[in-house]
Amino acid sequence: MVFPEYRPRRLRKNNAFRALIRETELSPAQFVYPLFVMPGKNKREEISSMPGVFRLTVDQLEKEARECLALGVNSIILFGLPESKDAVGSGAHAKNGIIQTAIREIKKKVPEMLIITDVCLCEYTDHGHCGCLIDETVDNDATLEILAKTALSHAQAGADMVAPSDMMDGRVAEIRACLDENNFESIPIMSYSVKYASAFYGPFRDAADCAPQFGDRRSYQMDPANSREALREATLDVDEGADILMVKPAVAYLDIISRLRDEFDLPIAAYHVSGEYAMIKAAAEKGWIDGDRVMEETLLSIKRAGADIIITYFAKDMARILKNR
Ligand code: PBG
């Protein structure tokens, strides 16, 4: 006689049974693939600290979007490298700015692709901070107006959803009001509600050329030591009208994802960020870990913690593996 509690353990060797009782599934439809768009023509530049991830010129986007769709990855988030930068990030809301042009191109060529845009100024300011400054301090309230203009310009170009990542106070309300006034009531806001001041963003700042030129982002991003504060930040965003709450980074903050999952009934997104991707890639390149297995285990942990949506540079790689299974 086998003790009942041992039966599942024996059955775990059976693939069908294992699949039958599986609690967490990865689905490419719930991945969001980040794309970096740069000026110029017919160029793909690999980002040195993010092997397999490229900066693309606008003409390359159609091919990339089709490749994602073929793998079942139906959502992308766009980041832009503008032609020039200034103190107030004007390029972020320019009608013919890099992101606005990219959105129009993708919508024209691959309309079924869901386009999310990152709304922030750090890629567009010459000082690299996420807002405009008074002396060396970010001016929260003056920044709100520029962010709202930026979100509106994305919606006008055809974006399906906007994702403010700047962490200024009150930005969700300001963006919501501006979108509503301009008849974009149906555009949802995915808020980077809980964004920590993290060293895991290093490779992204290379990729998007947006490292702060002085100081750091600790006055507006969260202290990694805090978790109750995450609930306060998320509550504010919910009250201001956020439709999806995001936690960023993901793996070092699985407890935060889990807490948000318990406290809120909105969809939760997790951003598996550049440094988290780079570490797995680097160790795999050295032969120290099995990169594919660590990738899957990592993405599963994010799902298991409670995320619905995973924004990840692994979206295509993971989708390819799932497809060939
Ligand atoms: C813009 C922004 C950043 C990331 C996403 N949006 C950089 C930052 O806050 O410094 C990081 C994403 C990643 O590391 O993959 N504010």
Summarize model confidence as the mean pLDDT. Answer: 95
Helix content bin: 25-40%
Please write the string of helix (H) and strand (E) elements: HHEEEHEHEEEHEHEHHEHEHHEH
Bound molecules: ligand PBG
For CATH, the homologous superfamily is named as Aldolase class I
Q: Briefly note the CATH topology name.
A: TIM Barrel
Global Rg: 20 Å
What count of domains describes the coordinates?
1
Number of helices: 12
Q: What about the largest sheet?
A: 10 strands, mixed
CATH hierarchy: architecture: Alpha-Beta Barrel
Which tags fit this structure?
binds ligand PBG; two-stranded antiparallel sheet; TIM Barrel; globular; alpha/beta
Structure description:
The chain has 325 residues and is an alpha/beta fold. The protein has a single domain (23-323), classed as TIM Barrel (Alpha-Beta Barrel), CATH 3.20.20.70. The protein has helices spanning 7-11, 15-20, 61-70, 98-109, 140-157, 171-181, 202-207, 228-240, 254-263, 274-285, 291-305, 315-323, and strands at 31-38, 44-46, 54-57, 75-80, 114-119, 133-134, 137-138, 161-164, 190-195, 244-248, 268-272, 309-312. Strands 1, 2, 3, 4, 5, 8, 9, 10, 11 and 12 form a 10-stranded mixed sheet that branches. A two-stranded antiparallel ribbon has the order 6-7. α4 (98-109) packs parallel to α5 (140-157), α5 crosses α6 and α10 runs antiparallel to α11 (291-305). It is globular, with a radius of gyration of 20 Å. Ligand PBG is lined by residues 118, 120, 122, 130, 165, 201, 204-205, 217, 273-274.
